Amino acid sequence: MARLSKVLLGLWLLGMFASGSALAAVREIDLGVLSPGQAAGLFGVLPSGVESTEIYEFDIAGAPINTVGVSAVSLLTTPGNPGAATTFDITTEMLQWDGSSFVGIPGTVGTGPAVVLSADVSPAAGTNPAGNANKYNRHYELTITATPPSGFATYGGSIAVVAVPEPSMTLLLIGGLISVGFLSRRRMKI
Known about the structure:
single chain, alpha+beta, 5-stranded mixed sheet, 10 strands, globular
């Protein structure tokens, strides 16, 4: 009986994802206040053939300048053929609140099946200077946008905050983020 209910649930989810009605085209996720040394996981399931955007909103606390590092990896599996997993392009961008709207942080746009980016940002914890105009009262956003082809489309990754380190530490952070992304992709295939 349990196996039959899992099969029926799987068929229902497959139909929902195939029709694009399982998830909204835009989804906002509040990560809260991130402190140096803290990381948050990123994960999304995207409807096939529909452009979707997921927005991760957060603040930074702590040191005067921090480095925010992001890694994200996509994975596309075909129902009935899980061994044929592939990837699809995702686009990521970091934005900051300028008092009236969110604007892009230069150098933080990346597109591809695996994306790694970083930016040095100031702490921005507390009340929104524009009188709480943004929904979750957050000063930074990470957007992930994709239009996956048919199949079961997911992505995974992380966002980490560190106080601005020596240049060699930045390289270690980026290398670690890449490693985490590829390890998560490898585990998803299994």
